[in-house]
Amino acid sequence: MMRMVPFTLENGEIVLGVEVKLPKTTLLAIMTDKGYIMCGALDVTLLNERLGDREILAGRAVGVRTLEELMEAPLESVTITAEAKGIIVGMKGSAALQLML
Q: What does residue 53 show for φ and ψ, rounded to 5 degrees?
């Protein structure tokens, strides 16, 4: 099953959350038109090393089970492109999304 949920950030901007229920796991992602944050399934190393030329703006939070938790969780890792935009490890997901607008 898949669920899509809009979230309003502190600055009034709306971002879109997507939850995909798979056998024994759930994929979580919340996106802007320029980047996204995702659950632990995101491979930041792959994005940086193998897909670095794409300059993907993304962050990863681990241990989250809901979209709401993903918004509040500290990011465990971020892409090089995200770092260049001021997104840092430990930043809340919602704060990172604001910088991705």
A: -65, -15
